[in-house]
Amino acid sequence: MKLESLEKNHYYHIFNRGINGCTIFNSNENKAFFLKQLDKYTNDKVSFFAYCLMDNHFHFVVRIDEDEKQVTQLFSNFFNSYVKAFNKQNNRTGSLFEKHFKRIRLKNEEYLRSLIVYVHLNPTHHLGLDFEEYKFSSYQAILSSKESKIKKNEVMQLFDDKENFIFYHKQRKDKLTEEYTFE
């Protein structure tokens, strides 16, 4: 499968999971470190619109703000830095993630809106947890008045306002809850 190239000024869904579905975050500290490294490596080169970190996978919704080669390399450096730290902490060696991070170029604004909601609903979909309370997604950061790397104003513009942002998420959550039963 040929990987989608990352083009400047385009939006992407970037995601990956642990090799063979293995855990890539053993603790909240791992997740916090992952986000810290993400900020360090992508600073001002990638704009973030949503993210969610699950125990065995992650999702980013981004816009590429620099040239393809530079951004692809910085993501590679970022993932390598996390894997080295994770392996050292867990006394393990070898690959942690599946071979290449996946990327899908978003074709339109509706897809972008839907994807942001999809990413935020991951804790509900996979774990039956309340997405509004989940600490390692951008949902709370978008609604917060605190400073964040997330492009909050641009996200709100996609949904028109805060009330529609919340409504869109809850409406999709209700549909999701109807489709799945959690035990």
Automatic annotation (TrEMBL):
InterPro entries referenced in this protein's UniProt entry, alphabetically: Transposase_17 (IPR002686), Transposase_17_sf (IPR036515)
Domain Transposase IS200-like stretches: 7-122
Transmembrane segments: none
Protein name: Transposase IS200-like domain-containing protein
Organism: Flavobacterium aureirubrum
